[in-house]
């Protein structure tokens, strides 16, 4: 599932980055910033960081939220 077209990042890339940079689900904005900084997601055209983007299957914000939830469920 494509999350950033410019960098060819998939949901799996985001999930891997979340595993490497753990954050609390409540810190979604901090987590998004950390992911953007660590893998440069959203750094080129910025479309994937907007509320709507027809270039990707899943917005960066939604991918980070889903990956955080998945990481949290794996801890329980
Ligand atoms: S689609 Fe992510 S920066 Fe362009």
Q: How would you characterize this protein structure?
A:
The protein is 50% helix and 7% strand. Strands 1-2 form a two-stranded antiparallel ribbon. The mean pLDDT is 89. The protein has one domain. It is mostly helical and 76 residues long. The chain has helices at 11-20, 28-39, 60-75, and strands spanning 2-4, 9-10. It has 3 helices and 2 strands. α2 (28-39) crosses α3 (60-75). The radius of gyration is 11 Å and the shape is globular. Bound molecules: FE2/S2 (inorganic) cluster.
At a glance:
The chain has 76 residues and is mostly helical. The chain has helices spanning 11-20, 28-39, 60-75, and strands at residues 2-4, 9-10.
Q: Structural class, from helix and strand content?
A: mainly alpha
Mean pLDDT: 89
Helix segment tally? 3
Tell me which ligands are bound.
FE2/S2 (inorganic) cluster
- As a whole number of angstroms, the C-alpha radius of gyration is 11 Å
Question: Keywords for this structure?
Answer:
76 residues; mainly alpha; 7% strand
Structural topology:
Elements: E1 2-4, E2 9-10, H1 11-20, H2 28-39, H3 60-75
Antiparallel strand pairs: 1-2
Helix pairs in contact: 1-3, 2-3
The structure holds FE2/S2 (inorganic) cluster (FES).
Residues 4-6, 42-48, 55-56 line the site of FE2/S2 (inorganic) cluster.
């Amino acid at each position: 599932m494509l999350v950033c077209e410019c960098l060819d990042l998939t949901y799996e890339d985001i999930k891997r980055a979340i595993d490497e940079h753990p954050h609390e689900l409540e810190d979604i904005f901090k987590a998004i910033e950390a992911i953007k900084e660590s893998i440069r997601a959203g750094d080129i055209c910025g479309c994937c960081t907007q509320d709507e983007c027809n270039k990707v299957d899943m917005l960066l914000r939604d991918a980070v939220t889903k990956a955080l939830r998945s990481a949290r469920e794996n801890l329980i």
